[in-house]
Amino acid sequence: MNVNRTLLLGVVAVALAVAVSVSVFRGINGDEVGDVPIYVVERGDFVREIHADGNLKAADATPLGPPTRTRRPLKIAWMVPDGSAVAAGDIVILFDPTDLEEELREGRHDAATTDTQIASKSVRAEGDRHNLERDAEVASLELDYAQVYQSKDALIFSRREIEESEIDETLAIQKKEHAEGAGEAHHGLSQAELDLLVIERRKAELKIAEAEELLQALEVRAPHDGIFVLHSNWGRTAEVGQSVWGGNAVAEIPKPETMEAQVYVLEADAGGLEEGLTATLVVDAHPDVVHQARVSKVATLAQRRDFRVPIQYFNVTLELERTDQTRMKPGHRVQAVLLLDEREDVLSVPRQAVFEKEGKKIVYVRREGRFEPTEVTTGPSTLGRMMIEDGLSEGDRIALRDPTRPVDEPLEEDQESESSPMS
């Protein structure tokens, strides 16, 4: 009984050893040497593409917002819901009139006050003018009297009387000149003060006119039929109660005849992204139909898609080959694939098989029972694969991990599969 049990245990041990042996030597492409997985280099097509998501938007749309001529922010009092169907002439946005109504009252008050000041100043100026003219006439009469009755005859008048008469004439002349000069100066000053009041009146009139005009523009109406779509800024849309400066669009009504897609590409994936690249996209609402497109615009700088998330994206506009109005609506979510590079009959290997040693890119080629470090020239790469331009041949068997390191030793930062940026 014990012998049979011993034999049975031996058979089980042999079977386990064979199973372990088979599992150890079974690897990628059906090959593994020891504990190092092997990849057999083959020729094939190399495709480098980017996956991105975004939304459809009209290539042409009518922006809606506060009047561009306003010099102050206006508060949104009401809006139709985002995505509402509207007809031409419908009110879609209302701005709060409170501040403008207060400004209109202030303008009218300023105008009335200025009118009162102008009238009062005109009356006072007219009275002062009459008084000064009267003073000038009196001074002129005194001068005439002094000149007619001047004591000049030395045979009749004494020298003192003659000198006093000359002084009286001189004083009369100066008094007349002063009265005339004072009248001219007062007239000029009064006119200047009236001119300033007229300017203030014109300012009040402009204030009134602007307030009245803007009050008429607080109702924003749809210029044509369409869908009311709110603008998004860093993932945020305008809300009731928010203040908006003139010229900043709050929403738009797209024209659905020509659609385009606005998609977002991660900054880390944007290498080689440029205008003119071909792309395909599907609308989430109709995933069974693939639409052809091309990159028509790439943002100059990467920005956050959501102000709360620090990840940066490049905003990319895709021009559609054609617009299918039965399946495409503004705001529909899309999934796009942008083709960066496509090559036929080239060598490519998994990124994890390429290592960087002393500034050189190498792979470990299995030859005559051992791994030989071989320098290679790499080309474009994707997230998982790298094209080899020189250094390898079809059929070469390469290591998928560094065979010079134990299995349990952590990989260093210089391994190409982890640290190298995408080309």
Can you characterise this structure?
By secondary structure, the chain is α+β, with helices and mostly antiparallel strands. Among the domains are: 24-46 and 343-419, Beta Barrel (conserved putative lor/sdh protein from methanococcus maripaludis s2 fold), CATH 2.40.420.20; 66-95 and 219-249, RNA polymerase II/Efflux pump adaptor protein, barrel-sandwich hybrid domain (OB fold (Dihydrolipoamide Acetyltransferase, E2P)); 99-216. The chain has helices at residues 2-25, 98-148, 159-216, 416-419, and strands spanning 32-33, 36-40, 43-64, 74-79, 85-86, 91-95, 219-221, 226-227, 229-230, 232-233, 236-237, 243-244, 251-266, 278-283, 286-298, 303-304, 312-320, 333-350, 355-357, 360-367, 370-375, 377-381, 385-390, 397-399. The strands form six sheets. It has a six-stranded antiparallel barrel. The protein has a four-stranded antiparallel beta sheet with strand order 7-6-4-12, with no helix packed on it.
Alpha-beta content class: alpha+beta
Instruction: Provide the β-strand percentage band.
Output: 35-45%
Q: Which stretches are low in confidence, meaning pLDDT under 50 for 5 or more residues running?
A: 1-31, 413-423
Distance between the termini: 69 Å
Q: What is the average per-residue confidence, as pLDDT, rounded to a whole number?
A: 81
Order of helices and strands: HEEEEEEHHEEEEEEEEEEEEEEEEEEH
- Per DSSP E runs of 2 or more residues, the count of β-strands stands at 24
Cross-sheet strand order for the largest sheet: 3-13-17-15-14-18
Helix content: 25-40%
Summarize the main sheet: 6 strands, antiparallel, barrel
- Count of separate DSSP helical elements: 4
Taking all Cα atoms into account, the compactness measure Rg is 46 Å
Q: What would you call the shape? A: elongated
